[in-house]
Amino acid sequence: MPSKKALVRRPGPRLADGLVTHIERASVDVDLAVEQWEAYVGTLRAHGWETVEVDPADDCPDAVFVEDTVVMYKNVALIARPGAGSRRGETSGVEEAVAGLGCSVHWIWKPATLEGGDVLKVGDTLYVGRGGRTNAAGVQQLRAAFEPLGARVVAVPVSTVLHLKSAVTALPDGTVVGHPRVVDHPSLFPRFLAVPEESGGHVVLLGGGALLMAASAPKTAELLAGLGHEPVLVDISEFEKLEGCVTCLSVRVRELYA
Ligand SMILES: NC(=O)NCCC[C@H](N)C(=O)O
Fold first, then answer.
1. Which of the listed residues 7, 88, 134, 162 should we mutate to test ligand 1's pocket, taking the one with most ligand atoms within 8 A of CB?
2. pLDDT digits over 123-143, tens only?
3. For all residues of the chain together, what is the average pLDDT?
4. Pocket-forming residues, ligand 1, beta carbon under 6 Å
5. Which of 176, 137, 128 is nearest to 155 (CA)?
6. Residues of 31-43 as b/e, b for ≥16 C-beta within 10 angstroms?
7. Looking at the predicted structure, is the pLDDT value of residue 222 above 90?
8. Active-site residues (predicted)?
């Protein structure tokens, strides 16, 4: 049944110690991050999303990046097993949240690792990034969980960024968008549109043509507005310093059962 709920998790006090892998560390203003997070959550709500706050995991600096802890397909929540050891403590609160919503709950098991930021859903196709955080066993377990339910899993090598969705996401019509510098294999996608900014490759579909995007991608917003989309920009500068994107701050739950 269609649902319009979104999991979010408030930034914790240790946010500034979050992991940085592919960029230089810059100091994070935690108070500003909290303000930006509240504006992000407010934007989801303004577009009709009921936000569900996952319990804090304050020992885990990266817990605000809730997308990485779970993959939703239909009414099934597949709990991730983060490739980053420091992020493994984030999943228990998410298990409780998705179980509380009535999802069927499954798990990625050792030795597999998989982070939700590596999974891009376009209709029933799940593109999965095989990179620094998701290993081959993670790809196999994703297939075993979701192909019997009707998904097709397509593995995509990721080398220059943290996750597949740090490179690409998809527009409402299924066109995959990304900056060519960080997309290793654009030909793997049936329709690919190159955008002028790296953060322009990150869109969250809000419904009704609205696209939640980072304020750091104004040229891409203009390009997409010119194609008939409705970009809604939010400033997430403090999360970008930790390699976060608009996608990673929420998990939309769109097909709850009953
Ligand atoms: N899905 C995402 O884009 N997640 C961003 C995670 C950033 C965090 N600092 C990390 O390295 O795990």
1. 162
2. 999 999 999 999 999 999 999
3. 97
4. 18-19, 21, 62, 65, 67-68, 84, 87, 117, 162-163, 165-166, 242-245, 247-248
5. 128
6. eebbebbeebbeb
7. yes
8. 163 (proton donor), 248 (nucleophile)
Distance in Å, CA 244 to ligand 1 centroid = 5
In the chain, the amino acid numbered 1 is M
Contact 111, 137 (CB under 8 A): yes
- Model pLDDT, residue 1: 78
Q: Contact 5/247 with Cβ under 8 angstroms?
A: no
Put simply, whether the predicted model's pTM sits higher than 0.95 gets the answer yes
| Domains assigned to the chain | 2-255 (3.75.10.10)
Residue 67, class by beta-carbon neighbours within 10 Å (0-12 exposed, 13-18 middle, 19+ buried)? Answer: buried
CA distance 22 to 76: 32
Instruction: Say how many Å lie between the CA of residue 87 and the centre of ligand 1.
Output: 10
Mean pLDDT of 19-38: 97
- Taking the centre of ligand 1 as the mean of its atom positions, its distance from the CA of residue 68, in whole angstroms, is 7
Residue 87 contacts residue 60 (beta carbons within 8 Å): yes
